[in-house]
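Reading a protein record of the kind used here takes only a little practice. The record below shows the convention in full.

——
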Amino acid sequence: MKHISVIVPEGSSIVDTIIAPFNLFKMASAHHQKLHQLKEPPYQVDLVGLSNEPVVYQGLFSIQPTAAIEDITQTDLIVVSPLSGNLERGVEKNKAFVPWIKNQRIQHDAEIASLCKGAFLLAETGLLNGKTCATHWTAHDLFRQKYPSVTLIPEKIICEDNGIYSSGGAYSILNFTLYLIERLFGRETAIWCSKISEIEFDRISQSAFIIFSGQKDHSDEQIKQAQEFIESHYEEKINIESIATMLHLNTRSFLRRFKKATSNTPLEYIQRVKVEAAKKKLESTTETILEVMYGVGYNDDKAFRNTFKKYTGLSPKGYRAKYNREMLYE
């Protein structure tokens, strides 16, 4: 019998994001056993803590681990559950998991899957260095700062790199768990779990859920001035060289400093600000798509649609149909 370890982290986490994957894996294993008339379930699933003591969350809910890390000498899949709250403090509280995760990967070739901001604990192992990774969009900037050797894929809900998996945020972990179930048990079992649990199948992007609020968690005041200028003049045609001149910087220095401070080029930043403004209009107004396009400073219909889809994963029409209340009830 193979083994799945769902980590029960210390500190702050959301109970559902630990229990739901645990239950889905057990459901999949039981169904697969029945489907193929096996004598025993193909996987044992454990809630694995640093000890056997219950872990209390929000002062209200507790999870009783079914095993401690010292009890699990070999596992086939480690699910690194999400952390919440202060991520640096959360990583510190759970550092004892790091050598155990590394040992299972190096000595036993265990696969590892981080859920949401569990990517921070996984990154502490060094196993993500040189690899790609996904995490919740609200943590992208901090993740890049802390783990520059990891290639963050911002738009992805599901990321896979040679047996190490990671996912976007919040309850998209349910979609990610179905993805893992398909890998372990096959598509038939995954579809069955999807239907029984009423979870959308094959959703792989979190782009449509990202709220861009500008990356200003840096100390470069001149670049902050540039960001504020862009955000105040997004309806206009913005010239990058003119912004550099306004700040008394040469263009090359401006481009380098802007990228370092925001993790975006100025052009990407301008596009994201315009797209965020367009999203708000599509969500809350009855303006036509052309009116929205002109209102955020685009004159080329094809360029607007391509840029909008690049950052949201949806066409402007598709986005409006999904998020505009009036459209929902037409």
Remarks:
- The longest helix spans residues 16-35.
